[in-house]
Amino acid sequence: MTPKLLNILTGINRPSGPSSGSMILVHDLYHAMPELHTTFLGRDPVDPQWATSFDQLITISTTKRPQGPAFDRYLDELTREVSGLVEKIQPDVIHAQYVGLALSLAFARTAGSIPIIALAHGPDVMAAERSPREHEALKEVASATAVIVAPTPALADRIDRLTEHRFADRLTVLPWGIPLNDVRVADHPPVGTGALALVHAGRLDENKSTITAIEALALTHQPHHLTVIGHGALREHLEERALELGLRDRIRFEPHLPRAELWSRLPNFDALVFTTSGLEAFGLVLIEAQAHGLPVAYSDLPGVRHLLGGAGVSYSAGDPHSLATALDEMGRGVHWRTALAEKAVENARRYDIASTGRQLRELTLRVARDRP
Q: How many helical (H) and strand (E) elements, i.e. helices and strands, does the chain have?
């Protein structure tokens, strides 16, 4: 007799496709857990290829109103819709993605005796740090959970502080990962010293601080070139700033790329520039770059040095002068850069999505067994 698969309900309140690191992560994560039966709640439009990681994908019909005075009514409507789905699906465990955001609140208010594992992604914690309403929401979800999962000790510590240490025994660290089997490292050892081909990939917003990389390029002693890949509200401002600094020929802006295309491009660069200035939950792009043999010039945020395993060069977050110095050091040290590239590939092997999936599955099975 075939054993019954554990029934998991999860979801992210966004269009169902690879639009962000969190969406890509959950796609990889549940694909790595075929032993679980997963129902995912998302929104239209649905990317058919992306949806294949789930046994069932249900689109949320409640009109999304995450801001302003209509939020409370929106949350009530969403909670009623989720309540009906929970009753219909009868999950064994709920995985609440983003601690404290609307869909997780709806899960917390409708789960009843169904255990919840909350998974923090970073934007939820940042929202709780800047807004009293989001702070209260995070605490409400945390109080309804059996376990709160964070990808790094640094993020777990911030959640612990936000919840006044009331749920420290529920916090567990589970590092994220990428599908390492899909990575192909090009055989192109660094040649000579001088200008580097640099890449920055990610959202173009205040927290990612891409402006730091652009202003640093104007301060370097070597004519490094930078390719900025991504989209966001600051794209036009960043392009204007590059022109003001006379960097038209040294900075190239490209749109967001599907991961397969980004991965095919990464081996063509000498190093990744990571410029986040505030909270970074994990930084999947760091591991993606390392897996393809790229050393990283990174803003020295809590936890990032440990994540990279020493295979990078740090600089003071938000400081273009500090980044310019780091880039010139990398340009001069060809043998050092070769050693960093080798160490980067070795470090990335620690972050396989198969391992992440195995650990989350084991945690889910334990929580299900402990269900009252």
A: 15, 13
Torsions phi, psi for 288 (to 5 deg): -60, -45
Structure tokens at 280: 């970074």
- pLDDT at residue 189 greater than cutoff 70: no
Rounded to 5°, the CA angle 353-41-49 comes to 55
The amino acid at residue 266 is: L
Residue 213 CB neighbour total at 10 angstroms: 26
Q: Looking at domain 180-348, what is its CATH homologous superfamily?
A: Glycogen Phosphorylase B; (3.40.50.2000)
317 DSSP 8-state letter:
T
Q: Give the gyration radius of the chain's Cα atoms.
A: 21
The pTM (predicted TM-score) of the whole model is 0.91
What does the alpha-carbon distance between residue 96 and residue 110 come to, in Å, rounded to a whole number? 12
Please state, in angstroms and as integers, the Cα–Cα distance from residue 273 to each residue in 151, 238, 338, following that order: 21, 15, 17
Which of 170-174, 241-245, 298-302 shows the lowest mean pLDDT across its residues? 298-302
Place of tokens 């390719």: 227
pLDDT classification of 190: cutoffs 50, 70, 90: low
Q: Which two tokens stand for residue 62?
A: 């409640």
CATH 1.20.1740.10 fits 6-177+352-369, yes or no: no
Q: How far is CA 110 from CA 37, 60, 90, 231, in A?
A: 20, 16, 11, 36
Specify the higher pLDDT residue, 187 or 63: 63
